[in-house]
Amino acid sequence: MTQNFTGNFTQQEPLPEEAIEAAVAVMRHGRLHRYNLSDGEAGETALLEQEFAAYTGAKYCVAVASGGYALAAALRAAGAKAGDTVLTNAFTLAPVPGAIANAGCEPVFVEVTDALVMDLKDLQVKITSSGAKFLMLSHMRGHLVDMDALMQICNAADVKVIEDCAHTMGASWDGVPSGRHGVAGCYSTQTFKHLNSGEGGLLITDDADLAARAIMLSGSYMLFERNGAGPEKEVFDQIKLETPNCSGRMDNLRAAILRPQLRNLDAQCQAWNDRYKRVENGLRNATGIQVIERPEKEQYVMSSFQFLCPDLSNAQMIDVQKRTANRGVELKWFGADSPVGFTSRHDSWKYVAAQNLPETDRILAGLFDMRLPLTFTLEDCDLLATIIREEVGAVYQTG
Ligand SMILES: *Cc1c(COP(=O)(O)O)cnc(C)c1O
User: Fold this and answer.
1) Whether the CB of 169 sits within 6 Å of ligand 1
2) Residue 73 in contact with ligand 1 by CB distance below 6 A
3) Ligand 1 in contact with 164 (CB < 6 A)?
4) Which CATH number covers residue 317?
5) 232 and 278: one domain?
6) pLDDT for the residue numbered 58
């Protein structure tokens, strides 16, 4: 008898009661704007900034409206000017090239490897050929590149690294938290990430000038002293009038629901990894399937699952996708000619000059991606692996 899966791939857990109570308290007092504070009150947004800075070990933190906003603000605050070239991963999500475009800059894509991380040889080639002084490094789907090797290449070439940690909140490389290697780390608190406020973003840095510029950009008017983890007032004297206000603040309602979630983040990360490992065990050594092996130095957090079917044709990939969908399993495929939902890729972004990325194209043509929300049980994960194994196996036989 074939078994079908009935879980919902886009269903999150409810917010913790503590978060709901904190949200209600903000709504009762009515001071939703982050700079609207009563006497002696720090405000939920400022407190979140302090707590996230402490969680990551960063000196400064700025809470903003989205992950994409944080990326664009970090790039501008780090000194990128309109027309500058910015290197980034050829395999990433649309808000990443979007943030580069938002800063008026031009993306140049770097190939990915079949471990789904930036290809460091191609990075070296592109640094030389483009002369770029910025890299927006996307830890796409939670896969961390060898950060020691990457930073060595970038430091040697004077390239500033901005980390896109939308999928690596809670993760680290050799004990150093993701987001703490480059000049700035940017996180998203959008519903499908590791903290959920619907929309939201966080930017961390140790650079006082970058932090001050990001705070001004986010739209702090002249109330920057009310930020929770910003630099000294004197740092703003230099830049406050020359930095435009591009409003993109976080509000107290979102911050209020994020703070209790942050306190529980490490336990949530463990729960995601338990699910990830269950699927991984179920798919390792299956016919036609290659799981992504993870380096020992990578302390990952996986809220989604990726695997490769390197021997299947495009028609077979589509067949697998249909067959698993018929059994209730939603796989995303990055090989389709036009993007569906979240599956856009470098050649979908027509506002960027077309670029030749044969390795990335080959890898994406064989890549499946699946969400793993925490509403799935470990037994659900076993069933997901069984269905995928059976359907890839069946299609593989017809090849
Ligand atoms: C979600 C995401 C972002 C930022 O998304 P927002 O919707 O702007 O918060 C950035 N990079 C990656 C890889 C993402 O998945």
Assistant:
1) no
2) no
3) yes
4) 3.90.1150.10
5) no
6) 98
pLDDT of residue 103: 98
Distance in Å, CA 97 to ligand 1 centroid? 11
Residues 186 and 64 in one domain: yes
Mean pLDDT, 10 residues at a time, over the chain (399 residues)?
A: 92 97 98 96 98 98 98 98 98 96 98 98 98 98 98 98 98 98 98 97 98 98 95 96 97 98 98 98 96 97 97 96 98 87 85 96 96 98 98 90
User: What is the token pair recorded at 275?
Assistant: 């699910």
Name which residue sits closest to atom 2 of ligand 1, judged by CA.
166
User: Which atom of ligand 1 lies closest to the CA of 188?
Assistant: 9
Assess whether 155 and 175 both reside in one domain. Answer: yes
Number of domains into which the chain is organized: 2
Structural domain includes residue 322: yes
140 lines ligand 1 (CB under 6 A): yes
259 and 269 housed in the same domain = no
Question: What pTM was computed for the model?
Answer: 0.97
Residue from 164, 258, 301 whose mutation best tests the ligand 1 pocket (most atoms within 8 A of CB): 164
Burial of 387 (0-12, 13-18, 19+ CB in 10 A): buried
In a domain, 286, yes or no: yes
Residue 6 lies in a domain: no
Instruction: Give the per-residue pLDDT at 112.
Output: 97
Structural domain boundaries enclosing 132: 17-263
d(CA 300, CA 140): 12
Sign of the torsion formed by the C-alpha atoms of 192, 197, 198 and 203: negative
User: Is residue 1, in this structure, part of any structural domain at all?
Assistant: no
Residue 125 to residue 152: CA distance in whole angstroms = 15
